[in-house]
Amino acid sequence: MFGVIMKKLTMDEKILRLYNDVAQVVGVVAWQGQVNEGDKVVVGNVPLKSLLLDSVQFRLDDPKIEELRGVKPKTLAEILNTLVGLNIVDRDVQERVVLISISESSPVPMLLVKDDGTVYLKCADRFAFDSNAFEDNRASGLEMKLSKSLLPTPMQLSYLTRGMQITPTYRITMQDGKVRIAAEVIVTNDIGKPFSDVDVTVIPGKINMHGYSEHFRFMAEEARGASAQVVRRVAADVELVEDEGQISYRLGKRNIPEGQSRFALFTTKQINSLVKYSALLNVGKCVVTAYLEFKAPETLPRGSVTVYREKTSGCYELSYECGTNINIDTTQKEADIVIPLRIPDTLEVKVTKESTKTERIRFDEARNDVYVTIVEYTAKIKNTGNEVADLSLDLFLKEFENLLSTNITPSNADDIGSYCKWDLKVEPNKTTTLTYQVRLQYYKQLPHCFLYLFSCFSI
Fold first, then answer.
1. Topology (CATH) of 347-445
2. Among positive and negative, which fits the CA dihedral 412, 414, 419, 422?
3. Which residues of the chain have pLDDT under 50?
């Protein structure tokens, strides 16, 4: 049981570090008067609902917390239950009466009281409560006891709380073979309270919840030393910090309201990119898929992507095959990024079966005739866009099938096997024609003497 009850104190939040699903809050608590051993200290404005109690820490040099718990404000009915059998004041008649019992049938409890043998029922808001502990009992926040007495000196306190989601988002704008990336972060605050004028740092990634206490003591960066960090300004008010493989974004002083808010991280200059197309050859109109490829200009945390193609009249959005935004994985600087785009309307591949013929190629050991079926196809690739299209055409061959001839040498000509690939560059407003012959299957025919005998018996 704690000792002397102290006035509730308030934590002045200074720093907010945002991770996926968890936020670290660092602030200052100013004591009002000396804290003696055994005193109860209640620090208010702390989100108890999602607080991780074992993460509450003072700075390394400060005394440790011996006892800690969260206390929530008691309801009026809960407080009145502690006064049953005691005197309360009926303000209508200015007389003391004894509280017998409480009824919570309405938002304001009804009280059953007794006065000189008379019992009556009255609404609780008509009474005054003769209890010095009434206000203290309504205190809420972090209730703690420290390991030693303290003078009234401001102390720094930190804790972890769940309910803060961060989602990096990227808007990629395409124009003339280049892309520009605008990165933002969406912060969803479901902690239960807003934060005002705090230094915000966004740290993409999740906390290892096994043993986080030591890592998240106040200003953990100081313990490792600032020399390990590389800091670059990526926007007017945003710094990118790289520290032993972990990146973070310092946003400076910001307000984090409850609900959702957005903050800009950086916008890159135009970088080289390439749109590649691919199609699987089959008879009829082939399905063409498109991919945007470029090298990451920065280390990009995992996030959602929206791609736009810029025109002189403005931007229009390119949707994806699945109809919704996709995610990119965490990607290191200079790594390749591949993003699927909508089925393109500027490139068409149509395959036509031109001819089918059967040829006898040999006799087998039993003097059976061996025949094959040979089919000739024509693929017309039409590019109605204004840029050169890089197209990969794939042809998969079944067992015993072979590519006999083609007017364009396959990219894997040295090792065709059961798979053929053509890498083509299709000029804008041009049509490229690919022809190829495929030997489909073998089959046998009985010797001529057996065919003659069979025809005789049939007559």
1. Immunoglobulin-like (2.60.40)
2. positive
3. 1-3, 133, 211, 213-226, 320-324, 446-459
